[in-house]
């Protein structure tokens, strides 16, 4: 790792104080900081182009911001097979697990090869409208199907490998990777999974059923979710909290493991379960 790309959400790093700290640290340990020709001026607007610009010039991308910044960076970086490390300038930061005061130590670990690169599974989604393929997308965290600004219950028929599983009335369903198990899925009551696992988590959102629970499928399964034909209003498919697609009654989405993976650099001293406790359980005790 010699050339280190830097992506910053300047709404999180006012005045680029931590970005400059990172640049100085990279240079101190003999590396080269690679920055886009223009810096993101409004939060994450234009970030996709900036990531694509530096991917061909660096061995690693370090992004400064919250998990949203990390996800948006990763959705482009995976196309170039570039690993990513996140510095947390947000709140919980499950993906951006390097804290502000750990920047220098993290950079030192990188140049001492004291790290591992985890390949995390992604999900591939195909959205069908009127029986025809309407859109394709990939997700690092999750795909959700939810009500599009209405108060009526959304009825979603769920299939596993084309076998009917159940009808879920409620606010929707979130389908998550293990990486995404600590995001929307967890908030909806889903289980937490070790992020390097290979499985698919399906969690109903505010289900109107007493017995409704999350379920976990193996990575080989294909999940199909159909909006009830009697549902005349619009529903919303949201991918990684970044992209939205409108669907309605009779439309459906197919979700399965993607052939692609995203590479995440982890400092070896950072254990997932320790990070989990520090960010959730210890915070509850404060």
Automatic annotation (TrEMBL):
Tell me where it mainly resides.
cytoplasm
| Coiled-coil annotated residue ranges, if any | none
Query: What are the catalytic residues?
Result: 67
Pfam families, sorted: NAD_kinase, NAD_kinase_C
For this UniProt record, the keywords arranged alphabetically read as follows: ATP-binding, Cytoplasm, Kinase, NAD, NADP, Nucleotide-binding, Transferase
GO annotation, cellular component aspect:
cytoplasm
Q: Which enzyme class?
A: transferase
- Glycoprotein among the record's keywords? no
Enzyme Commission number(s) of this protein: 2.7.1.23
Q: Name one GO biological process term.
A: NAD+ metabolic process
User: According to the lineage, what is the superkingdom?
Assistant: Bacteria
| Reaction equations catalysed | NAD(+) + ATP = ADP + NADP(+) + H(+)
**Compartment(s):** Cytoplasm
**What cofactor does this one take?**
a divalent metal cation
What InterPro entries does this protein map onto?
ATP-NAD_kinase_N, ATP-NAD_kinase_PpnK-typ_C, NAD/diacylglycerol_kinase_sf, NADK
What residues bind NAD(+), as annotated? 67-68, 72, 141-142, 152, 171, 182-187, 242
Alphabetically, the GO molecular function entries are:
ATP binding; metal ion binding; NAD binding; NAD+ kinase activity
- Record's HAMAP family? NAD_kinase
Sum up the protein's function in the record's words.
Involved in the regulation of the intracellular balance of NAD and NADP, and is a key enzyme in the biosynthesis of NADP. Catalyzes specifically the phosphorylation on 2'-hydroxyl of the adenosine moiety of NAD to yield NADP.
Query: What family classification does the UniProt entry report for this protein?
Result: Belongs to the NAD kinase family.
What protein does this entry describe? Answer: NAD kinase
Organism per entry: Ruminiclostridium hungatei
Give the gene name.
ppnK
């Amino acid at each position: 790792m010699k050339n280190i790309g830097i992506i910053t959400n300047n709404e999180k790093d006012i005045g680029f104080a931590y970005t400059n700290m990172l640049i100085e640290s990279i240079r101190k340990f003999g590396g080269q900081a690679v920055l886009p020709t223009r810096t993101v001026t409004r939060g994450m607007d234009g970030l996709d182009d900036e990531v694509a610009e530096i991917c061909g010039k660096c061995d690693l991308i370090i992004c400064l911001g919250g998990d949203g910044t990390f996800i948006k960076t990763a959705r482009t970086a995976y196309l170039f097979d570039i690993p990513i490390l996140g510095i947390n300038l947000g709140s919980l930061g499950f993906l951006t697990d390097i804290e502000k005061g750990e920047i220098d130590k993290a950079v030192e670990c990188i140049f001492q090869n004291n790290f591992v690169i985890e390949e995390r599974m992604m999900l591939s989604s195909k959205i069908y409208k009127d029986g025809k393929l309407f859109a394709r997308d990939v997700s690092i965290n999750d795909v959700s199907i939810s009500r599009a600004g209405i108060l009526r219950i959304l009825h979603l028929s769920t299939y596993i490998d084309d076998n009917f599983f159940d009808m879920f009335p409620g606010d929707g369903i979130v389908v998550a990777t293990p990486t995404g198990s600590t995001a929307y899925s967890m908030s909806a009551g889903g289980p937490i999974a070790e992020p390097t696992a290979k499985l698919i988590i399906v969690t109903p959102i505010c289900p109107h059923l007493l017995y409704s629970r999350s379920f976990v499928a193996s990575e080989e399964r294909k999940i199909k979710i159909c909006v009830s034909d009697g549902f005349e209003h619009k529903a919303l498919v949201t991918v990684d909290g970044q992209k939205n697609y409108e669907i309605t009654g009779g439309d459906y989405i197919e979700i399965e493991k993607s052939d692609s993976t995203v590479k995440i650099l982890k400092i070896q001293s950072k254990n997932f379960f320790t990070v989990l406790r520090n960010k959730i359980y210890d915070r509850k005790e404060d």
